[in-house]
């Protein structure tokens, strides 16, 4: 090379179509059209919906990355960096949200801006405009795929789930108590992770039932699509609350706890029948509707002392210890006189007024505490003046708690156990457990562990092999 010759710069060559990846959006492989006639780059998405606070607005959207494959949908979210009017090649103008993303083509990765538009009929899910091309990029209009090719097969493997980003989620907490500890912790922890968390009063929801477009409305407005619902439905509104949850289930929203599990856990008779069906240890329990069966009820649970429980009792209310047979008969007669439904249960004396609350998230016991009743009270509920301390549980207790939560298909459950001479006995499975006592007793971020589970469930799933198409 002579002294007067100037070396050519290293050029990055692209064809008029290339394989690209947008890893930050969970899109590992797409075909893009490279169009130097277009100024801006575009992503052809659907269900485009802004959300979040005005100070940091976000946008949710979904993409069918493979043309013609509407059965494969990847949910995405990103911060909005701008909103611009874009004029298409046919002269039509459209206001679009603009997001920032990292694009990867072959060995190169660089930041670009993308506008979002719903143009599902396009042959390419992405258009790469000239603003996204650096000065050293050369486009050969007559060539295709100058850079290494990718494959749509990645969407059919678990890899797509493993590399998918933890996208920003829109989450609703169904609660009538927006200021209590559990609800505020759910909001604070979710927002700390960048999610948008809204508290919805269950009783102010109403539903439009339709085979084609079932919806949930709130104060006159249709609720948006949520990534997840965290039910905190109070016992007094169980029937209506579970109806609202069923509506979200019909829409296809992920609900941390399903309507069937909540309904079953609130009815103590139904709950004990489920425990018995799954062969889960519990105190001997009996139920009858006729007053003629009082003596048989008492004898079935081993006689006095025994426990009499209202079927829909909560927080230790409606639970009575009858220390003698005569006292048991009096309590049973009184409950029947009030036309109340109740069951009779064996009193586990060796528990000595203590029980174990195991907090199950997903398929794991994440914390446990020992609850001790106030002096002179056999009930250990914290709402009744009991105290709580952290406790190490046995393998059998851990397995029993998880098995009980699974029996009700609950992803968040407080399983109450008694330590008996014959092993752990399940007293109750709580589908809306309080979080304050167990977080303080265990010192663990229980709500954070719950969000770990929600984020895992909300990530895109691989397509089963049986549904693959060429």
TrEMBL record:
The keyword ATP-binding applies. The keyword Manganese applies. SUPFAM superfamilies: Acid proteases (SSF50630), Glutathione synthetase ATP-binding domain-like (SSF56059). Residues 272-455 form the ATP-grasp domain. Its cofactor is Mn(2+); Mg(2+). It holds the Pfam family Zn_protease. GO terms for biological process: SOS response; translation. It comes from the Bacteria. One of its GO terms (molecular function) is ribosomal S6-glutamic acid ligase activity. InterPro entries: Asp_endopeptidase, ATP-grasp, ATP-grasp_RimK-type, ATP_grasp_subdomain_1, Peptidase_aspartic_dom_sf, Rimk_N, Rp_bS6_RimK/Lys_biosynth_LsyX. GO terms for cellular component: cytoplasm. Keywords: ATP-binding, Ligase, Magnesium, Manganese, Metal-binding, Nucleotide-binding, Protein biosynthesis. In the C-terminal section; belongs to the RimK family. This is Probable alpha-L-glutamate ligase. It comes from Rhodovulum adriaticum (Rhodopseudomonas adriatica).
